[in-house]
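Lab notebook, page 48
Experiment: co-folding of the full assembly
Goal: obtain a model of how the components sit together before planning crosslinking
Operator: M.T.
Materials (sequences as entered):
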Amino acid sequence: MSSPESRSSRNFMTTKTVRVLTEAAGLLRAPQRILPLFSKLASDELRTTFEHRHLYSNVASTIPTADALRSVVDWIFRAQRPDGGIAAYYSLLTGYSESYPEVTGYIIPTLYDFGRLTGDLAARHAAYLATDWLLSLQMPSGAFPGGLHASDGGPDNNARPSVFNTGQILQGLVRAHTEMEAKTRNAKILKSAVAAGNWLAAIQQADGSWTGPAAYQGTAHTYYSMVSWALARLAAESGDPRHAAAADRNIDWVLAHAQPSGWIDGINLRGHPAYLHFIAYVIQGTLECGILRRRDDAIQAAAKAAWVLLRKFETHKRLLGTYEPDFRGGQRFACLTGNAQMSCIWLRLFEVTGDLRYLNAALKMNEMLKQLLPTKGRRGVVGGVAGSYPIWGVYQPMRFISWGCKFLADALMLEQRLTREFETKFETKFITKSEASGCA
Amino acid sequence: MRVAILCSSPYSETGCAVAARLAQLGNVPVGALTLPSWDRGTLLRKVGQWGLRDSLQYAVAKLSPGKSTIQKQIRNPYLASALRHGDGIFRSVTEVARAYKFLVATCSDQNSPRAVAQLKQWSPDLAIFTGGNILRDQVLKVPRLGILNAHLALLPEIRGMSSPEWSLLCGVPLGITIHFMDSGVDTGPILLRREFAGADGCDSLADLRNKMIAEGIELIAEAVAGLDRGTVSAVPQADREKDRQFFVMHEHLKAVATHRLQKGQLNLVGGRCDGSGGANG
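Observation: model returned without errors.
Model output:
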């Protein structure tokens, strides 16, 4: 008899092997992808061989932020499938994936932000289509299904409710609700969002975590702080104290995992290392929920973790793709999505604390990420954010991923807004020290 | 007082100026320990800091001065008086050493056993750091009194890199601190701490930095003389545990700092820099 652990490990290896074989077969089906694949492999090999990081790396702007932002958002537009959902990724081996409900959900706020910033109506339209598609997926319980959506577009009878996906879709629904002018449609979206929030609150454990069959790998994860963030947003719209209480309970549970080093334990991914993407999820969810719920304890915990990573980035001019507990060493590839998330976190911490070092680090991180955006190639490549740098790194290898584009677009838009505000404030509102002490 | 100089390159202007100034004041160094001329880390850093064109100009001026004027051979014009030697200037630490008869040793890493052995052989009372590697304990412990650094900001308020720029953005008065180095970043005991009053008329951050470097060299000379006479003593820094370390400034923020400098807005509070925005609570 084998133990459940070894069975689970075998299943994981089998899934991984099947995935590798499927991807390789994709290349045989579409040999025209061979050239772009080798071109990307060669360019990353060259870049990693000749790049030299030093104290002054990434301090100069070489690519205008607005151009990079446009290019990333164009990638998202091209990744929108005919059903309205956004593909999870473009693989250099198999092309676009099916629509991914989770990412489609949290890309909606990004599309609206871009629409507001640039006046681009296509972004609002894309968000509209994405919302419609998501509404069609909701289960009677209020939950949303996990995983990629079935390619035939029909109802997926094997779909299982997922806490994390429901939380991320909730982000999109709440934003769509605030943006929508048509009352009937607006009521429909809010009703759907409230149903999702009610389901999340109902299946939450007494300790504030989410576990059981609707949780990934059946276990509780601190990166579900991203779900609390969505619930906190919903609470602000619905006014329902149950949603706020559920968010607070989960953040309490997350904060109980905070270590003196700043590390927040409990990512709990069996078979995967702690990718920077998930570490950043924990921090970002905790921070944003803390801001919305006015929880100084959450903001401080997020700031402590974010500061450790800022120091590492500033000292080594890069972040590792994975970290061991207490931010000890990990794998040396770059998890670009995690980097973009850290930029978002530092920018928000600058906004909250006024500490310019966060802004400084984010500017450099954005600079590095902008330089890694492909400027030519196939439609799934140009403007895409690779899972890993170099592309063969262990996080989403050989793929350009939609959530990477989402977080980079968020980071670039935040950069634009905050630098503009900073300069304006600097010119007109900054007070002298003597005035400040006079006020006191 | 036996003083050794640590330089990032034999062609380091600051290294040359410190050695020459001390010698001019009668305190000829016992030796200068320098990284090689073609140290990759130093070259990359300089290209990043100055840009490729300025770095090349610097290299050409130092290695092949030809018929160029003295002004063109000096990157930092405020060091001219310290570097001037007869009809020409000192272009390298080796030339200063030849004129004042002290030794120059080259090492690939200032923390290497070879470098430590060389320093021990000179048995200095004091060393002065003008650039190079992040120094480790094995080197820091060699000079009897310690290793001095001129930091271009007031400590403990602004530690780390781009310190004049951060002073401008954070509304901390511009200043220079002479301190002993320890294993932290600019956390060692302070010997002299002085506000810098020469920012007026500076039209760029590079100009400001050059002026401050020149002033820093005078303060180093003052500190060495004070230590020799026993009239100055080091005071440990307050708030050592607070994270006040700053990092190289992005050019976007530098543009704002330049604007403040040019407008003479030297005492405006721009952003927080008390370390409380980070992990310090």
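Interpretation: Chain A touches chain B through 42 residues (CB under 8 Å).
Next step: discuss with group before ordering constructs.
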